[in-house]
Specification:
441 residues, alpha+beta, Helix Hairpins, BirA Bifunctional Protein, domain 2, eight-stranded mixed sheet, 13 helices, 18 strands, 42% helix, 19% strand, RNA-binding
Length: 441
RNA sequence: GGCGGGUUGGCCGAGUGGUCGAAGGCGGCUGUCUUGAAAACAGCUAGACGGGAAACCGUCUCGGGGGUUCGAAUCCCUCACCCGCCGCCA
């Protein structure tokens, strides 16, 4: 959420951001926002004046009540008379207070609702651009591998090796669900364990988060209210299945006050992720490039505003290091203004080259959210200097998302005989196994 | 699912109708003392919003919401969460 004062004093910048992010929407009417803020302030000023007056009257009644207990009957009668007069004055204020309080609440509620739909503004280093086609490539690592045979793509490899079963996934749960079997499941487990071990070495605290969260938690990270239709919802219990571990871990310190010396805080979390992918029908439907449930290890950081952009670089580097050790070809792109997500101030996407599919696959999205999520989550820290509490900055990035990574590994390390070589760093997690071969029945 | 006890500032913890935004302690900051530090002593130390050039002033906030009252941390209702005991169960 953006600060109301920031919106008002940077109105055109916010207006441009809303347009850039394609967030233009009847719910966001910035001219109305300005008007509402004016009426909110006016109502509050009026309300405060009447309330102050009423408070003064009440304070006069207290001592008079004491006099009612005295023995002098004339004095008691006089006090009673005074009390009645004060009560009458007080009652006369009620209508006005109620009226102003109503006006204030009405304006504030509308302002809050509108603010909930206004996206974060981009950092100054974010490049201009309208869509994914305009995202500049920051760097590329490795070389695309060459084959002396026609390489298979992920779905074929998975099914041929017997490590992926999409048909039965569809039967059991529906399209977009799948089984990993045998060495496919083991490779997944190895990757997750290895990621977490690497992150722990880099100072990230490993957590296993709740897979279901409440509405407030989703509001905090920015999924709600805008992306309601992308979430699985258990209505009986008013709980949502998490689309990423970012959601529960960002809420870890919600409504809390941290100390500056506690920062930065670094977490890594492994979880299943659940996404309805509404509106994505027809895209990447074959295999495991776009699915409703997948595993992911997520890295998160809570930092001070001063260090968050440096921490974004190191977060991205931590994700890249994993890919480098796996020996895969990848590139890093910066999302342009038009492609930047709702809550993000700056994002790097990391894409793996999948030689069989012939596409770059996004396996990590590393973002700095600035204070946007912290504001929505009421998450502050006390500064070392002792000044006012500040909102922390939050960052997160995948390290890494499993299905597309598996796809890239299969495709990159496939052999002429159809088997797949296991990347060296993972072998100790697989009992030394060096190769995945077709599973018999 | 049933019954009982809780929820107060960064933390702990007093406070059962008025002078309470809240005693006391811890922690933090500042000063005195000291070569420096510790200790001791003194002072300061919640947030949001509004008004104001500022000093400062006002309103609201004692888990959330609603109610009673001139006035609520305090009384009533309700919801959430936490801690017990019972039931069910991986």
């Amino acid at each position: 959420m953006l600060d109301t004062k920031f919106i008002l004093s940077n109105l055109e910048f916010v207006r441009q951001t809303v347009a850039d992010k394609g967030a233009a929407h009847a719910r966001i009417d910035l001219d109305k926002f300005v008007r509402l803020d004016e009426s909110r302030r006016k109502a509050q000023t009026e309300n405060d004046r009447f309330a102050a007056e009423k408070n003064k009257l009440s304070k006069q009644i207290g001592p008079l009540m004491g006099k009612l207990k005295g023995s002098d009957e004339a004095a008691r009668a006089a006090a009673q008379k005074e009390i009645d007069a004060l009560k009458a004055q007080s009652a006369a204020l009620d209508d006005q207070i109620q009226q102003q309080a109503f006006e204030f609440a009405k304006a504030e509620t509308e302002l809050d609702q509108m603010r909930a739909w206004i996206p974060n503004v981009p950092h100054e280093s974010v490049p201009p651009g309208k869509s994914a086609a305009d995202n500049p490539v920051v760097r590329t690592w490795g070389e695309p591998c060459r084959f002396e045979f026609k390489p298979k793509f992920q779905y074929e490899l998975g099914e041929d090796l017997g490590i992926l079963d999409c048909a039965r996934g569809a039967k059991v749960a529906g399209s977009g669900f799948y089984f990993l079997c045998g060495d496919g499941a083991r490779l997944e487990r190895a990757l997750i364990a290895w990621f977490l071990d690497e992150h722990r070495k880099n100072g990230y605290l490993e957590v296993i988060p709740p897979y279901f969260v409440n509405e407030k938690t989703l509001f905090g990270s920015g999924q709600l209210p805008k992306f309601l239709d992308q979430m699985y919802y258990a209505g009986e219990d008013k709980l949502f299945a998490i689309p990423t571990a970012e959601v529960p871990v960002t809420a870890f310190y919600r409504d809390e006050m941290l100390g500056e010396s506690d920062l930065p805080k670094k977490f890594c979390a492994s979880s299943a992720c659940f996404r309805r992918e509404a509106g994505a029908a027809g895209a990447d439907t074959r295999g495991i490039l776009r699915v409703h449930q997948f595993n992911k290890v997520e890295m998160l950081k809570y930092t001070t505003p001063e260090t968050s952009y440096a921490e974004l670089e190191s977060l991205t580097a931590d994700a890249e290091a994993l890919i480098q050790k796996l020996g895969l070809h990848y590139r890093v792109i910066t999302l342009c203004r038009g492609d930047l997500g709702f809550s993000a101030a700056k994002t790097y996407d990391i894409e793996l080259w999948a030689p069989g599919t012939g596409k770059w696959l996004e396996v990590s999205s590393c973002s700095n959210f600035g204070d946007y999520q912290a504001r929505r989550s009421n998450l502050r820290y006390k500064t070392a200097g002792g000044g006012k509490p500040q909102f922390v900055h939050t960052l997160n990035g995948s390290g890494l998302a499993l299905p597309r990574l598996q796809a890239a590994i299969w495709e990159t390390y496939q052999q002429k005989d159809g088997s797949v070589i296991v990347p060296e760093v993972l072998r100790s997690y697989l009992g030394g196994q060096e190769r995945i071969e077709a599973r018999k029945a």
